[in-house]
Amino acid sequence: MTQPHFNQIAIVGVGLLGGSLGMAASHMGIADEVVGVTRTKASIEEARRAEAIDRGTTDLIEGIHEADLVVICTPVSHILSVLPEILSNVKPDAVVTDVGSTKASIVALGEKLAAEHNRKFVGSHPMAGSEKTGVRAAKANLFNESTCFVTRTAQTPSDAFVSVSQFWQALNARLVIARPDRHDRLVASISHLPHIAAVALVRAVESFNEDKNLVKGIIGNGFRDATRIAAGDVRMWEDICSDNRGEINRARAALEKSLTEILEACKPDTCSELGNLLQDARDYREFLDHK
Amino acid sequence: MTQPHFNQIAIVGVGLLGGSLGMAASHMGIADEVVGVTRTKASIEEARRAEAIDRGTTDLIEGIHEADLVVICTPVSHILSVLPEILSNVKPDAVVTDVGSTKASIVALGEKLAAEHNRKFVGSHPMAGSEKTGVRAAKANLFNESTCFVTRTAQTPSDAFVSVSQFWQALNARLVIARPDRHDRLVASISHLPHIAAVALVRAVESFNEDKNLVKGIIGNGFRDATRIAAGDVRMWEDICSDNRGEINRARAALEKSLTEILEACKPDTCSELGNLLQDARDYREFLDHK
């Protein structure tokens, strides 16, 4: 594998993912300079102290106009809103990518604008992160052994696709190449639906209006684990749920079908079936979880 | 608090819970002798090696007939099936309890039989344990700072209720006193439904017939956490789901109402509502999770 190299990488949004990217790119010699674009001057200082960027600016165009690689690391709706300005202001040979958790609408817009301005866009989705947010949680090895989707369509320029793929591989991520719509379908069932289900489990308990302190006293590790993702960043998940609503709805239908199937099998006369369902889910999960 | 003391405690079923109980009772001087009733002779040896019991037998009546406290530590359906034999063979002043995850049907049967035979039954449900099973996972501090339900009805004898409560408190469990039906309603929403939802999430992913190795490569910690409880003991959960089906169905209706509410709020024109829902669930969960 060729180690990629960029004179300058611009990171738009220096939070957990953007900050970790900046650290990793510097540590591994992938970039000579990392420029951060933040919303506030205070964030520039914070990102510099964390050694996530070499220098920063709150001016988007100033931050990206000399970059060879631009990585947009903000929530989905913000990515969609800054793509026009970025793709009309980067250098002609620069490559633009993003880390958004949905890909269909982002890649459609990115590739449309890239074609109009004769620029290069490739969608990415590194599946790293946690319920922690912000540059203070950033770390250079965040992407180590994580999975990263890189999108490919008929419009994706091969050289840019290779650059972006090599970039993630240099960070030790495992690549999964997929069409944007295929990505959105896959992550709806393995990531977005589990998130919404966790939120719904919390709200279901809340809806019974039981004494909060009683509930707090009786919840166990099962509830804690099952709902941990509901502690995730609200703004980010708001965007994901809105943007991928169609695929999440499809996955939700499968969830409800499974719930019905399980509860039907709980009836006294179908008990052996219930054992099979539980065992089957256990086996499948064990396969998925096994390193 | 008075430290309880029993000349002999009989534990029916020496797995994770039974084994941990035996260890704790010996270590803390709560029992002079711990007798284990197991299904096989090999299990007796295993339980003795783990220091969970002093001696064991595969004969139920032999195991319980001299005990001052009998704790039934088997799956729900087995508890229901052994209650008649136990309550007609224990000493008149012995106290019988169980650790079943559901309480309405167990306590109804236990109290009915206790009245018939002039014996004493009190239901318990220590909310300890994990996806690990068997006496090899047992540990003396399993119940430390866990929550333990003890049931109380109009039929519960006060002295037996006090004995059982003191027993769990001596193991450093936090007591929650509840009617059996109230217990079943509470645990349906905070324990049984999350379990079934985890199983349904796994089965939903499986139902899409994606390549298993691809799915394995892209699942993240969110999916792992959200579905961890689906790795739990199949036999135990089969019993719980069958026995508490009514309350689980009620909790499921609340879950689906929440799912619908969230997905409705994902529509473009109701976005601010979605943010509120997510934030609300995050706040409530944070309250519950905070030590």
- Please state the CA-atom Rg of chain A, rounded to the nearest Å: 21 Å
Oligomer: homodimer
- Number of individual domains of chain A: 2
CATH topology of the largest domain in chain A: Rossmann fold
Average pLDDT over all residues of chain A: 95
Helical fraction of chain A equals 40-55%
DSSP summary, beta strand count of chain A: 9
Q: Report the CATH superfamily of the largest domain in chain A.
A: NAD(P)-binding Rossmann-like Domain
Regions with little confidence, pLDDT below 50 for 5+ residues of chain A: none
Most extensive interface: pair and counts?
Answer: A-B, 89 and 89 residues
Roughly what fraction of the amino acids of chain A lie in strands? 5-15%
The N- to C-terminal Cα distance of chain A equals 24 Å
> Helix-strand pattern of chain A, N to C?
EHEHEHEHEHEEEHEHHHHHH
Strand order within the widest beta sheet of chain A:
3-2-1-4-5-6
User: CATH architecture of the largest domain in chain A, please?
Assistant: 3-Layer(aba) Sandwich
Structural class of chain A: alpha/beta
Give the number of helices of chain A: 12
CATH class of the largest domain in chain A: Alpha Beta
Largest beta-sheet characterization of chain A: 6 strands, parallel
Quick structural summary:
The structure is a homodimer of 291-residue chains. Chain A contains 12 helices and 9 strands.
Task: Write structural notes for this entry.
2 copies of one chain form a homodimer. Chain A has 291 residues and is an alpha/beta fold. Chain A has 2 domains: 6-178, Rossmann fold; 183-289, 6-phosphogluconate dehydrogenase C-terminal fold. In chain A, 54% of the residues lie in helices and 14% in strands. The first copy, chain A, has helices at 16-27, 41-49, 60-64, 76-87, 104-117, 158-170, 180-207, 212-218, 221-227, 234-243, 245-265, 271-289; strands at residues 6-12, 31-37, 55-57, 69-72, 95-98, 120-121, 124-126, 147-151, 174-178. In chain A, helix 4 runs parallel beside helix 5 (104-117) and helix 11 packs across helix 12. The radius of gyration of chain A is 21 Å and the shape is globular. The first copy, chain A, starts with 5 loop residues before the first strand and ends with a helix. At the A-B interface, helix 7, helix 8, helix 9, helix 10 and helix 11 of A face helix 7, helix 8, helix 9, helix 10 and helix 11 of B.
